[in-house]
Amino acid sequence: MSSDAATAANATSTSLPRIDALSGGPGGGPDQDLEQPRMGLGSSLPAADSRAKTEGTFPYAADLWAEGLLWAAVLRSPHPHARILSIDTSGAEEMPGVRAVVTHEDVPGESNYGRHVVDRPVFASDLVRHHGEAIAAVAADHPDTARLAAAAIAVRYEVLEPVTDPEKAFAAEPLHPDGNLIRHIPLRYGDAEATGEVVVEGLYRIGRQDPAPIGAEAGLAVPRPDGGVEIYTASTDPHTDRDLIAACFGLEPDRVKVVVTGVPGATGDREDPGFQIPLGLLALRTGCPVKLAASREESFLGHTHRHPTLLRYRHHADAEGRLVKVEAQILLDAGAYADASSESLAAAVAFACGPYVVPHAFIEGWAVRTNNPPSGHVRGEGAMQVCAAYEGQMDKLAAKLGIDPAELRLRNTLSTGDILPTGQTVTCPAPVAELLQAVRDFPLPALPKDDPEDDWLLPGGPEGAGEPGAVRRGVGYGLGMVHMLGAEGTDEVSTATVRVHDGVATVICAAVETGQGFTTLARQIVQETLGVEEVHVAAVDTDQPPAGPATHGRHTWVSGGAVERAAKMVRTQLLQPLAHKFGMSTELLQIADGKITSYDGVLSTTVTEAMDGKELWATAQCRPHPTEPLDEAGQGDAFVGLAFCAVRAVVDVDIELGSIRVVEMAVAQDVGRVLNPAQLAIRIEAGITQGIGAALTENLRTAKGLIRHPDLTGYALPTALDAPDIRIVKLVEERDVVAPFGAKPASAVPVVTAPAAVASAVRSATGRPVNRLPIRPQAAVAAAPKG
């Protein structure tokens, strides 16, 4: 940070005991018999920032400070749909301590922004399109003054009737110059006339899950002497943010610098540019550093959420339960602006049949604008919504045929060499049947005893109103899949530099650490390749070459691949003089535990001695094989790779009150290769817990477009008390040959699969259809009497 801004900155299977012990599960603690490497890939190297985060000294964006700091506040619309008749800022400008007020008239460059589609205004000018849309921003010498000044801005509105039903958006007046339809994908695969002996239908609704990022969304903008600006914030895609910020400011990109401060964690886009752009405008206007720390309410109003989705399904199967045809209609509510809706729709349509072999598929998918809160990237977008629906259909099909739900799924599972409904051949490992068999065969948890001391095990806990006799146990299954990296022609590329000097290695890569473990992985790669134990990963800013967004596990693959290539280039520089001296090739030399040895034992030296005080460095890029957009029939090789997961959920349901307790989640996952056992376990557990939230509690509710209770009392996140026993039953390490290290992303697919498994278990316990997420209490009340 500048001186003015001081304080930020080959197929094997791994079974339960290994990971579960490391994750504090039923193994009861670290397994002393497990031999792990001390460093490098495969070791449980702890995160470099873990101690700082534990002790509370980690510098988050909300902790930033600079000399002469001003505070920002944003005025947001109280209406979901309105025409702006006038904006009077005089009341705010006249307040003591107010240094600047900016509106749409003060945006010097492009008036709209967007990471995926440039359609969202920095400040609303003529129309308000969603509750909480930014109207103006204020800079003042105290945060309370800034908030009071924002409230003093007088805006006259003509309130308009909001369009909140996405089904009505097709016929409604256009809410945006680009129209209400963002994208339509008609997928056509096989014979439209094909039918099955058994047909089941279903209508499913998925709620609006919020990413609920840990810590305040905050940032600091510092003006530069050259007329540019530096933005310090917890961005997950700093180069894209820099480019769109520069466009709005009318500046060249090199005059805007985005510095990534400590990211507490992210399950979607972390800091929306809508928070960053007003900061920069105010800093440029005042010539002073300006800070904004959004309240939780502002975060709910400002950033994007998971797409609420309406899904209609019809499954055809033969008498043995083998799928014949799947028909579906999928409608994504994008809210007011497009954002990542096109990408989310592509995933939803492509994965609408799930990890099953389906000879014939006909899917219609739409993403439309409404006056609801904006939707965007949240972990597993598109795939999570359809997983809940197609797994509901599989349960219906099993019930109608009288087949065990797990057996029905096993008769239809996808495997390597099969073809997706998009026409793309599955070339990566796809051990779906193996995953399902692992969770099906894992021992079930014991039933709770009918004992007062065990009341806390029942839904509602010891103070609950239910009776033990009303509790029913259910077991359900979910199979899910996600795509890795970007899709449909996205140019995935990342650049990394590795530098070694005096026994210390430094990695420079603009891949943002969002909790996915990239900085730890980068250290492990360099340790393994160069035998250097002390490895530092430089802080991220836009002076470095771009690495792309922190989504779809891409930093493990693309950025990790770039680090590996750079480290191997340094390795060659290190070994070539020795190989030449002893008349052998570098391939005959190996590095391990800081020592260099030859195959015949003639050469043995340390890395430090071989370096001889030299500084070695190399820069490399990683770019996976290209993909292509889906065509007019939904066909195309749109995805680089796929990852799969199976979950068995066990729930207890009070069938009189509808209260639900998740007892256990058994997980088997296709991971390619375990790079860090402890971190992998944590990522899977976190994904399962987020999925449980989507299944039972998380829904950002709206009434006629107005967000109700935009806080953490009205929006219920699962806590430690809500988290069940999570048993990592099996990790299939069948390496993907096209991926660096053979690894696959770990955290998105449990999020996708867990809600479907919980809903399946509640169906098992109650006999109810359960076609809405999160599950409402009335949907968990059994129709049948007790007994």
From TrEMBL:
<feature type="region of interest" description="Disordered">
    <location>
        <begin position="1"/>
        <end position="50"/>
    </location>
</feature>
<dbReference type="InterPro" id="IPR037165">
    <property type="entry name" value="AldOxase/xan_DH_Mopterin-bd_sf"/>
</dbReference>
<dbReference type="InterPro" id="IPR000674">
    <property type="entry name" value="Ald_Oxase/Xan_DH_a/b"/>
</dbReference>
<dbReference type="InterPro" id="IPR036856">
    <property type="entry name" value="Ald_Oxase/Xan_DH_a/b_sf"/>
</dbReference>
<feature type="domain" description="Aldehyde oxidase/xanthine dehydrogenase a/b hammerhead">
    <location>
        <begin position="55"/>
        <end position="161"/>
    </location>
</feature>
<dbReference type="Pfam" id="PF20256">
    <property type="entry name" value="MoCoBD_2"/>
</dbReference>
<protein>
    <submittedName>
        <fullName>Molybdopterin-dependent oxidoreductase</fullName>
    </submittedName>
</protein>
<dbReference type="GO" id="GO:0016491">
    <property type="term" value="F:oxidoreductase activity"/>
</dbReference>
<dbReference type="GO" id="GO:0005506">
    <property type="term" value="F:iron ion binding"/>
</dbReference>
<dbReference type="Pfam" id="PF01315">
    <property type="entry name" value="Ald_Xan_dh_C"/>
</dbReference>
<dbReference type="InterPro" id="IPR008274">
    <property type="entry name" value="AldOxase/xan_DH_MoCoBD1"/>
</dbReference>
<dbReference type="InterPro" id="IPR046867">
    <property type="entry name" value="AldOxase/xan_DH_MoCoBD2"/>
</dbReference>
<dbReference type="InterPro" id="IPR016208">
    <property type="entry name" value="Ald_Oxase/xanthine_DH-like"/>
</dbReference>
<dbReference type="Pfam" id="PF02738">
    <property type="entry name" value="MoCoBD_1"/>
</dbReference>
<feature type="compositionally biased region" description="Low complexity">
    <location>
        <begin position="1"/>
        <end position="15"/>
    </location>
</feature>
